[in-house]
Design a protein that fits this description.
The complex is a heterodimer.
Chain A (H helix, E strand, L loop, with lengths): L5 H32 L4 H12 L12 E4 L10 H8 L5 E4 H4 L3 H6 L8 H8 L21 H6 L9 E10 L2 E8 L8 E3 L4 E6 L7 E4 L2 E2 L1 E9 L2 E7 L3 E3 L5 E3 L3 E3 L5 E4 L3
Parallel strand pairs in A: 1-2, 1-3
Antiparallel strand pairs in A: 3-4, 4-6, 5-13, 6-10, 7-8, 7-14, 9-10, 11-12
Chain B lengths: L1 H7 L9 H25 L10 H4 L2 H9 L4 H19 L4 H13 L3 H27 L2 H14 L15 H21 L3 H19 L9 H18 L19 H21 L15 H9 L17 H33 L15 H20 L17 H18 L1 H18 L1
């Protein structure tokens, strides 16, 4: 083996320490990068907080009402628990649409397909909720002291309103949500369209567009500036409005739930 | 390293004692590499909820919704409910994790609070690891290099990442195992039988808690055994071989070690002898098996801690802030290496002059081989576990790992440190510096 000289060893050491310094810096940069990458849902999360903590939007919602939502997801913040903590409204539950109508997606594509029995199906599904069920064994076995148990009692939800509610990211900078009560028609799920309320939360300085539902442009009802970097705007359905192309249109009083689909209109 | 030669070894400091050494270079090296480790851990603060932390972060809200309020009793019953579900369903037993995670998410609801807890836990695990390395090796050199290496081997992952997600499960497991190692060592080393047994009990309880945090802990039993062996050796060394020394394999039945053994065997019998045979729905990742497909899984996972393995080209897009970070880290690293070199050179000079030193010519320490086995145990255990899970066959490779990768990262840091300090190159380098300092003295 070639004998190392004092000079070569010093050089090697310098190089070796420099390589380690570079690697240490690169590793920190890598860790920082990976940490940053999982912020993709951050705006959705923050917008949900803004929406559910806002005063006014959920005024008409009562304790033990039921929400039905296509984007409800217990794996994220869009659930009844988080809704209660933020808004103070204790829903009987926030169901995913697919739980109430397992063939919802297919039904949307077929004109004759009817979504039926929204109230009956919602109420009968409540006792099947298992999340966090725990009744201590030492206590009486018939003791029901949790919210699911209370709402599972007969007629407990007879006065509850069933709401169609949804929330999703419409564009990378605009979060959209709507809330509308179902009408008491067990044969076909219809919503009280003229009482529909919508909200947008944007992290831009101004709204980039107006939302539309079922091809009708919504009109601005109020604006709540939550924080300096978020604007929440409330929208309603006009009696007489316009479609996205600018053609005047009269809003229907009732709307088939399948037709409650969001779109956009240009700002005035 | 010119600054070393000119600043760190002034001739008037050649004749110094252990205190002088400790008071100057050693803290600087520890502080420098400690800061680097902390900076690495602090990158967690940039992350958002990730993986299972998304649904688990909703725990307090579900409890409020379900029971009307958030109370300690409600949080505890929620945790025990889920623990029961997993015990009966999948035959798993990890109640400590359920309790710990439910309380963390319930009482650290703000995102930054939870992230700070994650950061602190990982940092603590790293510092504790460096302490354990020192305790077992009596080598500050090895301890310093290990904490430096951790900043290289701990790499955040893009699939299942135990650093920024999964409810601090892995740092928590490591902290308990490391504390159990400390007590296992003390159990053997303690001069009094009663205190030795007491330490043994503490180690046994901590180890049982570690296994009840995550089952990976079960495979880390050899680390406790080796720590006990090292403690026994150190004790016999203190007694200068005068006392009776128990044969190595018999230490396992010593009353000092018995609590640890009982914990391990007890957990094994309970989980593998009772829970799993009676589980009602073992599926997915919890089915165990062995086949030829296990081999590539095992091999690939053994290398997951190597520095740079998780890097991707897109990680290093240049920006002003990144450049600033790189420069700061580079500067701290450079200063830390300077202090570390000063420490090494002084150490050699003391030895050369016949001085006594705890780090006595022992860059790796007195138990290099045994520490190597500890490192290997940490490196290989996660891969062994995954190789026995059919759900990972054809899936785990050098780019896909699971939560245990953090254990591999810690083991790899220790092994690389031992190999680096054993390398002849470093020895040559220190000798050269010694010669230079002598010349300067003349």
């Amino acid at each position: 083996m070639k004998k190392l000289t004092e000079k070569s060893i010093t050089r090697m050491n310098k190089n070796f320490a420099s390589v380690l310094c570079v690697l240490l810096a690169l590793n920190l940069v890598h860790n920082l990068k990976v940490s940053n990458e999982n912020r993709t849902r951050e705006f959705q999360y923050e917008a949900w907080q803004t929406l559910t903590k806002s005063v006014g939007f959920f005024d008409e919602v009562k304790t033990s009402d039921i929400f039905i939502s296509s984007n409800q997801n217990d794996a994220f913040e869009t659930n009844a628990g988080s809704f209660y903590a933020n808004s103070g409204k204790r829903l009987a539950y926030m169901f995913n649409t697919n739980v109430i109508w397992p063939d919802f997606s297919q039904c949307q594509l077929i004109a004759e397909c009817q979504l039926s029995s929204v109230r009956e199906k919602s109420i009968s599904t409540i006792p099947n909720l298992t999340r966090g069920t725990f009744v201590p064994k030492l206590l009486a076995s018939n003791r029901i002291d949790d919210w699911v148990g209370i709402n599972s009692k007969e007629n407990a939800l007879s006065k509850s309103t069933i709401w169609a509610f949804d929330m999703f990211l419409m564009t990378p900078t605009t979060y959209f949500s709507y809330l509308v009560p179902f009408l008491s028609n067990e044969k076909q799920a219809q919503v009280d369209f003229l009482n529909l309320k919508a909200a947008t939360v944007t992290n831009q300085f101004v709204n980039e567009f107006r939302p539309a539902i079922a091809g009708i442009c919504l009109v601005q009802f109020g604006e709540i500036r939550k924080q300096s970097d978020q604007i929440m705007t409330i929208w309603r359905v006009p009696d007489l409005g316009f479609d996205p192309s600018g053609t005047p249109i009269k809003s229907p009083e009732k709307l088939d739930f399948k037709q409650v689909q969001a779109g956009t209109c240009a700002n005035k | 390293m010119k600054s070393n030669k000119s600043k760190l070894i002034p001739s008037k400091q050649i004749d110094f004692g252990w205190f002088a050494l400790r008071s100057k270079y050693l803290p600087y090296a520890y502080i420098g590499f400690g800061i680097l480790w902390l900076l690495n851990c602090l990158t967690i603060m940039k992350s958002h909820w990730a993986g299972d932390d998304w649904p688990n972060s909703q725990t307090p809200y579900w409890i409020q919704w379900r029971y009307g309020s958030l109370s300690i009793w409600n949080v505890l019953t929620e945790a025990l409910f889920w623990n029961g579900q997993w015990m009966n369903g999948a035959g798993r037993f990890y109640p400590i994790h359920w309790i710990e995670s439910r309380f963390i998410f319930s009482y650290l609801q703000e995102h930054w609070e939870y992230k700070l807890y994650q950061t602190t836990s990982l940092a603590l695990a790293g510092f504790l690891f460096a302490y354990v390395v020192y305790l077992l090796s009596k080598s500050h050199t090895l301890s310093i290099v290990t904490i430096m290496m951790l900043s290289l081997t701990v790499q955040f992952r893009r699939d299942f990442d135990p650093h920024i997600a999964f409810a601090v499960m892995l740092p928590s497991l490591l902290v308990r195992v490391l504390l159990a190692i400390v007590f296992s060592y003390l159990a053997a080393k303690s001069p009094k039988t009663l205190s030795g047994v007491g330490y043994g009990f503490a180690a046994g309880i901590l180890y049982f808690m570690a296994m009840s945090t995550y089952e990976f802990g079960f495979l880390l039993f050899p680390t406790l055994f080796i720590a006990y062996l090292i403690g026994s050796k150190d004790k016999s060394h203190l007694r200068e071989q005068s006392a009776k020394v128990m044969p190595k394999m018999l230490v396992i039945i010593s009353p000092r070690f018995l609590p640890i053994l009982v914990s391990w065997v007890g957990y094994g019998i309970f989980v593998f002898g009772y829970l799993r045979p009676n589980a009602t729905s073992i599926s997915g990742s919890y089915v165990l098996g062995l086949s030829s497909k296990s081999i590539p899984v095992f091999i690939s996972q053994s290398f997951m801690g190597l520095p740079g393995l998780a890097f991707r080209s897109k990680d290093f897009e240049i920006s002003f802030s990144i450049l600033v970070i790189v420069l700061i880290v580079f500067w701290i690293s450079k200063k830390s290496f300077d202090s570390f070199n000063g420490f090494l050179v002084k150490q050699e000079i003391i030895n050369h002059k016949g001085g006594s030193l705890d780090d006595n010519n022992a860059r790796v320490g007195d138990h290099g081989i045994l520490l190597g086995f500890i490192a290997l145990n940490l490196i290989l255990a996660p891969g062994l576990m995954m190789s026995m899970q059919p759900s990972w066959w054809d899936r785990a490779d050098l780019t896909h790992s699971y939560l245990g990768v953090m254990i591999t990262e810690f083991g790899t840091a220790l092994l690389l440190s031992i190999l680096l300090l054993k390398s002849p190159f470093l020895k040559e380098y220190v000798l050269v510096n010694r010669i230079r300092s002598k010349k300067r003295k003349k």
